[in-house]
Every structure is written in structure tokens, then in C-alpha cells.
Write a structure and sequence with these properties.
767 residues, FAS1 domain, alpha+beta, 36 strands, FAS1_dom_sf, elongated, Fasciclin domain-containing protein, 21% strand, 7-stranded mixed beta sheet
Length: 767
């Protein structure tokens, strides 16, 4: 019988933790409990066996209105400070008795000691939300102890705040606080020293949780006293209700400049659920939650996110803020933005402000000093924080929604110090900053172990392309008017613009004399440099347009970091001209400029490839806007019009004896009534196909110094082309042919590039 009773008790104890949380807030739900459990939490703490050592805590709880809850049958966990702890608290706050503590303060104070639902020692050491009825496919399954926050009955009084977007005063509801519980599992899972890291935040407390846990600043004296409505853990200190990271900023004028900038992005969101529950009692028509515009962390909210159902997120996720004080901010502004056109932080563009602020927020979990030293906690750009988190001038505070570090000096964020730096530093490059950010490519330029060369167009280049930066309440947008109405430039288009201005994995010194070809991020797209000027391969193709007199080359200059190099490469800018404001790159979907299309639709004799295009048609190789048989990217070597005119006159082209070039430059039949036979077309096609290299054998566009190595390449006629890069010129030859053909240097060996290949001109035939 005795064994049966023991088994029943053990069975009951094993089920207590499973009543903790559910998908809804069950703050009024009660459960039947066995009769053998000795009274409620109130009764247990007031029992004569306790010798009155919790009388002050109970007096405070009764004055705060928690008697019914503590004496009821709703499941709860009580963190109970003894009289010694309460006496110390009163003395520290200049109170003589519990009666001296204001009612509102007392309610928040005692509520912070009362946790929803019942947690024994094991549950608090290693809380598992996936085992508490809160599991779903999105639940984060973490190592032991990392679910460290527990919801209490303490919440701040609603506040009246001004919404910066509307200028109206609103009532902000403050969610119930979560109390941090740091167990030995918590620190071992993080692989950091428990004592050193805990006491860094709580210098007036002692780590005693090697076989259990500390509750915020308190040590546990006795674990797991069993009441009929939950558990009691007695503690050696009164728990001070924690404020949010935002509260920490607001309470210290030393960080007022950082807070003022952060608050410019405040968002006040009406909450119907909270309004229905508490609006009437608070005499408020609408209750709001105070957060901040993405990507900034909502540091004013007590919870990581407002979602009762995501227990895993609420128990684990947190923010860490590394806030520079006013002096640090001022010193950084004077060193970085001096003579930049910006007068102060308020004059910075909102996007710059947002990205700057976001560099000082870590949104993963609560960050401890050792994690900062180890580099496991990083900036939004993925770089390590470069400060000593243990230093005496670092203001460390644990908050209800994470951790706070107040800094007296700050490093330059990597994005501000990388090749993207000019876009942050100078107003004239602001549109490019918006383009990088909206294309979701900005962070890639912050990689410290990569090298880049960036060509940044100024704002006028965007505007020459019809792209303007417009501002709205929610921020700035790059927009255009393709059909008379403003619409946002698509992310795909912005990515194409960025690719056209980026060289990956290489720091390139652009030449001021001679010629240079620079491969950029997009395949078969290049920058061409000539005598201190630059163009892109897309713009260079414009020199072939009939009647074009516009020089595609424009001036460029290097943009340095106030005379010093950028951290991960070089940055240049260029002056837009009449062809197009922005350099262009081909689309990745094959929908851009096409070599096949250019040849297939050519009808104007002024194009220098006109005669070659007409031979393709005579050989029945044109199908719509494509060339039959060609696939993928190819390299073509195209004889000039003059070369083909002379070759046709000399009957040198197989299958084309019936063709000629007329006086007006057009190509056609010598005798209009005597067209090419099928055999002649086949013969002509086979010969013309010699001028196209098979795509699979083409590594890149060819030019002196390109990745295309000297060697043999297969053409579409099935023959072999011997290609030679002579350093300053190029040549090709049929392997079994008798003639070496020089590639024309008329265009400085700059290839004419398209999304499906490139071509060079040659001035003699393959024989």
C-alpha cells in the first residue's frame, strides 16, 4: 500500500510540467490535484514550519492583490525571497516597510516573482517547449537550457506615446515580462564559462547554479517546494523587474542621440486582441504595441514577437543591443562624414540611419561577453564586434528582451568601410545604396575575406535612365514611370544593375593609359577601358548602330576612403553620357540582347555584319529570330562586308557562286530567277558554320589575355579551329586549312558581347 501511494505521488509530480503552456493564454485555467499535496503556495509559505521567514513577501503579495492567485488552484511557480532578501531590497530603495512601497511598483515587483504554470527544478533547468503541447513543425529544437525565459505576471503600466507618423498620442500596452533563468545547461550549451559570464551582467550577485540555476540576479536557496497549485523556489534576493532594451536606453541620457535616431523608425500598431481584453479597464479605445520598422529590432516590445503560440520563440529568442553613447556617436560622425555633405545624424538619409543602427543589434539570442570575444555573435553584416565586452567602460545590463551593452567607442561598420562605403559616405551615390539594398545584395559587399571592384554610378546616371528615388512614409523607393505611373523598380532589374557594376573576387586597378578588358559579375559582360575612359560591353555594341556618332566611353575616377583604401577592394565612379545613364549587364534568363537575333533580323546594309547575316539567310539558317543549330553561348568570327564582297566576286565561298553584293551594298542573287539549289544551300551552311564555335567549348569571350586558352576548338561545321592569343592580337585557323586569319584590331579587340555569345570581325576568309 505504501509503495502504491509513493507511485501515485511520483506519477502526479511527473505530470505537473505538462500543464505549463498551450496554444492559448490559459491564465484562468485550473486543474484537479491530489488531496495529499499540502496546501497552496500561500498556505505553504505562511505555514508555521516556515517560521515566518516569508512574511514580508506575503505581505507585499497581499497588498499587490495576489493573495487569491497564490491561494487558488491555478498552476503557478513562485520565486519566494525570504525576509532577509526583502529587508535588503527595502533598504536599497529607501523604504522602511512594505507599506512604503507604492502600490503600482509593488504589483510589478511581486508579479515578477509569480510565473505562469508549474515548473519543478528539472523543468526550469532544461525547459522543453516541444514537450509541453507547443510543438509544431516550426518549433526550434535547441540544446538543453537555451529556453531560458519564463513568463511572469508582471507588466508595466500603459504609457501615452506620440506616433511619429501621425503625430497623435496613443496608448501603448506593455506585455507581461519574462524572467531570465540561467541554468548550468544554458552556459554549457553555449560553451561559455557560467560564472564569468553571469557575473559580468550581475556583478553584485554570485553564480551558484552549477547544479541548478540562478533566477536573474538571485540564487536559489531551496528548489521545488511542492504546493497544490505548483512549485516554490526560495531565493536570496528580491527580483527587480527588468525593463526592455528600449527602457534601458530611455533611462540613460548618455544614449539619447542613439535613442533619438532609433525612435525615428517607431511603429505603433493597434492590437485588437489586447484592446478587447484590457481596453475598457484601461479606459482606452485602442491599445497599441510599440515596435520599430524592419530591419530594426523591436526593442521596445517586452516579447521577441507578439505571438502567444510560439512558446519556443518567446522562451529563447532575444535581442542584444550594442549602443554607442553620445560621445562615441559624435566622434564617429566627425571622422566618417566630415566634409561629406551631411551636417549631422538627422541629415542622413533614413536608409543610412537604419543600416547604421542595425549594425549594433544582434537578433539571434541573448549575447554574453565570451560569445562576443569568440566571434559567435556578429553584426548584421556578419562581422565580429571589435570591443572588449568585459571592459569597465562597457555598460552591461540584462533586459527583459535581451542584453544591453553601452559603448564609449565604436568601430566603423564593415559595410561603411568596404567597397560599398561611398554609397554611405556621399549623397551623390545614394541611389546606388538603395539599389544594393533593394536587390538584397548589400550585405555581400561586407565580406571581409573577399575582394571586389565596384563601379558606382551617381544619382544623375539613374535619373538619366528614368529611375528616381521617391520617399514615402514607410521609406524611400527607386521608381520609374514605364507607363505614366510610378512603380517600383523590380528586384531582378536592380540585381542586373548591380551585376553590371561589380567585379567579384578581384581588386582591379583600372588603367589610365592603353586598353583593358575587365570581366564583371555577369557572364559574357565586360568593362572596356581605353585611354582613361570606360564603357560596358552593352554600350560598346552601340558603335555598330548605323549612323551612330556617340562615343560610348566616359570618364571615370577612383573613389577612396578619404585617401585611404577600402577594406576589401577598389571603388570607382563614372560620368553618364547620352547613350544611357547606367551601365548594363545582360539578363540571366536569356531575354536580353541576342547575337542570334542581331544577325537574324539584320536588314540594314550599314551594319558591318550585314553581308554575313544575308549569307545565313541564303543558307536557310535563319528561323525567326534565331540561327538554326546554334545552342548556348557561342563565339563567332564574322568576315566584314568588304571581305565578303570581294570573296563573292572571286567565287571563293562554297555554295555561293550565284550571290553577289550590289552597288548599294545589299547582297542577293546575280540572276534573280536562278536561286540556290538545296545542295548549294547545304554546302553554304556547312561552310558558314565554320565561323561559329560550339558553345560547350567556349569558356568565355575571347580577347587578348582572356580565359580562353590557346588551343583547338570545335566549330558548328564539325571542324577544328586553332585559336591563338598572341598577347596583343588574336588569330584563328582551320586545323587543316592553309591560311592563318587575323582578328581585326579595328575595335581594339573588344568583343561584341550578347547574352548568347560574342563575336569579332575578321578581314579574310577561313580557307
Amino acid at each position: 500500500m505504501k509503495n502504491l501511494t509513493i507511485m501515485r505521488r511520483l506519477l502526479w509530480l511527473s505530470f505537473i510540467p505538462f500543464f505549463l503552456w498551450s496554444c492559448e493564454d490559459k491564465m484562468d485555467e485550473h486543474y484537479e490535484v491530489p488531496g495529499w499535496v499540502k496546501g497552496s503556495a500561500w498556505e505553504l509559505l505562511s505555514d508555521e514550519s516556515m517560521d515566518g521567514q516569508f512574511s514580508m513577501f506575503l505581505e507585499a503579495a497581499e497588498r499587490a492583490g495576489y493573495y487569491e492567485i497564490m491561494n487558488g488552484r491555478g498552476l503557478m511557480t513562485v520565486m519566494a525571497p525570504d525576509n532577509n532578501a526583502f529587508t535588503a531590497y527595502l533598504s536599497e530603495h529607501n523604504y522602511s516597510t512594505v507599506q512604503d512601497v507604492p502600490a503600482r511598483e509593488l504589483k510589478e515587483l511581486i508579479g515578477f516573482h509569480l510565473l505562469y504554470y508549474s515548473y519543478n527544478k528539472g523543468s526550469m533547468e532544461n525547459f522543453r517547449p516541444e514537450g509541453e503541447g507547443a510543438y509544431d513543425e516550426g518549433t526550434e529544437i535547441l540544446d538543453p537550457g537555451l529556453y531560458y525565459k519564463f513568463r511572469t505576471r508582471s507588466s508595466g503600466e500603459p504609457t501615452r506615446e506620440v506616433d511619429p507618423l501621425t503625430g497623435k498620442s496613443v496608448t501603448v500596452y506593455h506585455l507581461e515580462r519574462f524572467v531570465p533563468v540561467f541554468s548550468h545547461y544554458f552556459f554549457s550549451s553555449k560553451k561559455i564559462d557560467a560564472k564569468k559570464n553571469y557575473e559580468a551582467f550581475y556583478p553584485n550577485s554570485t553564480w551558484t547554479g552549477n547544479d541548478g540555476f540562478n533566477v536573474s540576479e538571485a540564487s536559489v536557496k531551496e528548489y521545488g517546494l511542492i504546493a497544490n497549485n505548483g512549485y516554490i523556489h526560495t531565493i536570496n534576493k528580491v527580483l527587480e523587474p527588468l525593463g526592455s532594451i528600449y527602457d534601458q536606453l530611455k533611462s540613460n541620457t548618455e544614449y539619447s542621440d542613439f535613442l533619438a535616431m532609433y525612435d525615428k523608425f517607431s511603429i505603433y500598431t493597434p492590437n485588437d486582441e489586447l484592446t478587447q481584453k484590457y481596453g475598457s479597464a484601461l479606459n482606452a479605445d485602442t491599445l497599441y504595441l510599440h515596435s520599430h520598422r524592419s530591419p530594426l529590432a523591436p526593442i521596445a516590445m517586452e516579447w521577441y514577437k507578439y505571438d502567444y503560440q510560439r512558446l519556443d520563440t518567446l522562451a529563447y529568442r532575444a535581442y542584444s543591443l550594442f549602443a554607442p553613447n553620445n560621445t562615441a556617436l559624435s566622434e564617429f560622425f566627425n571622422s566618417y562624414w566630415k566634409n561629406s555633405g551631411y551636417a549631422d545624424y538627422n541629415s542622413l538619409d533614413p536608409l543610412i540611419q537604419t543600416l547604421f543602427l542595425n549594425e549594433y543589434v544582434y537578433s539571434g539570442s541573448v549575447a554574453f561577453p565570451e560569445e562576443i570575444v569568440n566571434g559567435t555573435v556578429t553584426t548584421a553584416s556578419g562581422t565580429k564586434y571589435n570591443f572588449d565586452p568585459y571592459a569597465s567602460d562597457v555598460n552591461r545590463k540584462m533586459c527583459v528582451n535581451g542584453s544591453f551593452y553601452g559603448l564609449s567607442k565604436i568601430q566603423t561598420p564593415i559595410l561603411f568601410n568596404s567597397v560599398s562605403g561611398p554609397a554611405f559616405h556621399e549623397k551623390r551615390f545614394l541611389n546606388f545604396l538603395y539599389a544594393m539594398n533593394s536587390a538584397n545584395l548589400l550585405s555581400s559587399f561586407g565580406a571581409e575575406n573577399e575582394k571586389y571592384t565596384l563601379l558606382i554610378p551617381d544619382n544623375s546616371a539613374f535619373e538619366a535612365d528614368g529611375i528616381f528615388l521617391n520617399y514615402y512614409a514607410e521609406g524611400g523607393k527607386l521608381e520609374q514611370k514605364p507607363e505614366g505611373e510610378w512603380e517600383a523598380v523590380s528586384s531582378d532589374e536592380l540585381q542586373r544593375i548591380i551585376r553590371a557594376h561589380t567585379v567579384m573576387s578581384e581588386e582591379v586597378e583600372l588603367k589610365k593609359q592603353g586598353t583593358q578588358i575587365v570581366p564583371i559579375q555577369s557572364a559574357f559582360c565586360y568593362w572596356f577601358v581605353k585611354d582613361g575612359k570606360i564603357t560596358c560591353s552593352n554600350h560598346f555594341n552601340g558603335v555598330l548602330e548605323p549612323g551612330s556618332t556617340i562615343d560610348p566611353f566616359v570618364e571615370f575616377e577612383e573613389v577612396t576612403n578619404s585617401g585611404k583604401p577600402w577594406a576589401n577592394g577598389k571603388t570607382y565612379t563614372y560620368k553618364a553620357n547620352a547613350i544611357s545613364g547606367l551601365f548594363e549587364a545582360e539578363t540571366e534568363d536569356g531575354q536580353g540582347n541576342s547575337l542570334q537575333k542581331a544577325l537574324a533580323i539584320c536588314q540594314d546594309t550599314r551594319y558591318p555584319y550585314y553581308c554575313f547575316a544575308q549569307l545565313l539567310k541564303q543558307a536557310d539558317m535563319i528561323s525567326g529570330e534565331t540561327i538554326a543549330g546554334l545552342a548556348g553561348r557561342t563565339i563567332a568570327f564574322i568576315p566584314t562586308n568588304e571581305t565578303l564582297k570581294n570573296a563573292l566576286a572571286g567565287k571563293e565561298i562554297p555554295g555561293a557562286d550565284k550571290l553577289m553584293v550590289y552597288e548599294d551594298g545589299s547582297l542577293g542573287l546575280i540572276d534573280s530567277g536562278n536561286g540556290l539549289t538545296s545542295d548549294e544551300k547545304i554546302e553554304l551552311k556547312k561552310y558558314i558554320s565554320n565561323y561559329f564555335l560550339v558553345a560547350s567549348s567556349v569558356p568565355s569571350a575571347c580577347y587578348p589575355g582572356s580565359k580562353m586558352e590557346n588551343g583547338e576548338y570545335v566549330n558548328y561545321s564539325g571542324n577544328t579551329i586553332v585559336y591563338k592569343d598572341l598577347g596583343t592580337s588574336l588569330s584563328i585557323q582551320l586545323k587543316d586549312g592553309t591560311k592563318v586569319v587575323q582578328v581585326s584590331g579595328k575595335y581594339n579587340y573588344f568583343p561584341f558581347c550578347y547574352n548568347d555569345g560574342c563575336f569579332h570581325f575578321i578581314e579574310s576568309l577561313l580557307m
